[in-house]
Amino acid sequence: MESKEKMESWRVALISVLVTLAVLIVLAFIIAVVQTGTAEVIKDSLIEEYCSSIPLTEARDLEVCNEL
Fold this sequence. Notes:
Layout: H1 2-36, H2 38-53, H3 56-61, H4 63-66
């Protein structure tokens, strides 16, 4: 019985370590994307596409469209 409990605790420990590593990798990726400016370029592209797809009278009223 004790060996089964040891095996279960190793599984839990291994899963905990793997999940922690996965979270750290995702955070590192997000930080890298933000620091390289990729997020800003994507945001600007989306804003430009949105502002060009709505009528000019509505675009004038939106602050985000006036910043372009």
